[in-house]
Design brief:
The chain is mostly helical. The chain has three domains: 75 residues; 41 residues; 42 residues, Herpes Virus-1. It contains four helices and no strands. The longest helix has 90 residues. It is elongated and about 125 Å long. This is (spotted green pufferfish) hypothetical protein.
Amino acid sequence: GLNGGASSIWDFVSGSFSPSPSPVFSSLSSAASSGDLSRLLRDLDEAKKKLKQWEETWLQVKQACEACQKDAHEAKEQAKTAEAERQLAEQKWEETERKLKEFQGDFDVLCRSPGTPLLRSYGELDQLPLSKLHSIQSQLRSDLDLIDGVIYQLQSKKCIVCQKHDRCIVLQPCQHYVLCENCAPTKTECPYCRTKILKW
């Protein structure tokens, strides 16, 4: 009745009455919460993707930096090696130049020595009298004959094939004494007269 209705209104006003939530309001609240959660999940997923991309970029930059540092270190080591090689080459050049000057000095001394007229320059020889030049020519020919004799004696002892080992084999039937024990087995004819070798 009315009293019951008034009592219900009074209870609502006084706070002793708790109305049930509206089904429409509850649906809207649930939809809003679900939308916020989906948006937060999307934002979180995007943040994860960006973080992963940043990590990959940072890793690439780090690797590039390490590669640059390695290249710089190798270049520095190569520069040190090149500098050491340059200094060594410079030292060798200075040593060679010093020895060349010493040899040049020795050569100049020999050229000025009266006992070694063969080392005179053409300009100095041109200033000598004709009789002196004939004397030098005669001495040269004598020296050359002596050298030829020594060369012949040395060659006559060596195998005519290898020119290294001494002759030690007498070929039959030509009787030529021209081969060493290493070359003789490889020949079927005498290398001097082309006679067929029967034995040795």
